[in-house]
Amino acid sequence: MEQFIKKLKREVLRPFKRKTQSKKMTFEEIENDRESYVRLNQDKRFMMNRAYDYICKYDKYAPNANFMDSGYFIQDIWGARKVLENTPKLHYDVGSSVAGFIAHLLAQKQKVVLLDIRPINN
To answer: The organism sits in which domain of life (predicted)?
Structure first.
């Protein structure tokens, strides 16, 4: 019976597990990306502060938008609201989920330029 319960639990929870790639960013890669961002950023509203870091080491190599994550869903809505409050003529976006954040912007007729180093394979 105990084995059955474990198997049932595993099968029921399977769709909710976040699927990540085994590859994750190295410390050096994170620091290089940070340095590039700091060097290129011209907007004082988006200055880096390590106190607020929440590094997602697997996201850079994950296929885009292949799972539903409620944390990202809420974040996408919040971020879209912030962009729309600033009423930009054009929003440049790097790596956001097309099915989430970008869809929220497009639904409000916000013009978007989407950039991503990952291939769109879905």
So the answer is: Bacteria
* pLDDT tens by residue, 81-101: 999 999 999 999 988 888 889
User: CA dist 12 to 5, 6, 28, 97, Å?
Assistant: 10, 10, 38, 26
Look at residue 28 and tell me whether its pLDDT is greater than 60. yes
Phi, psi of 44 (to 5 degrees): -65, -15
Instruction: Give bridge partners of residue 91 from the DSSP assignment.
Output: 112
Helix H or strand E encompassing 115: strand 112-115
Residue located via tokens 């190295």: 26
DSSP-based three-state secondary structure for 58: coil
CA distance 34 to 49: 10
Is residue 29 helix, strand or coil? helix
**How many angstroms separate the Cα of 58 from the Cα of each of 20, 26, 30, 61?**
6, 10, 11, 6
Beta strands 112-115 and 91-94 are parallel
**Measured between alpha carbons, how far apart are the two ends of the chain, in Å?**
40
> Greater confidence, 33 or 17?
33
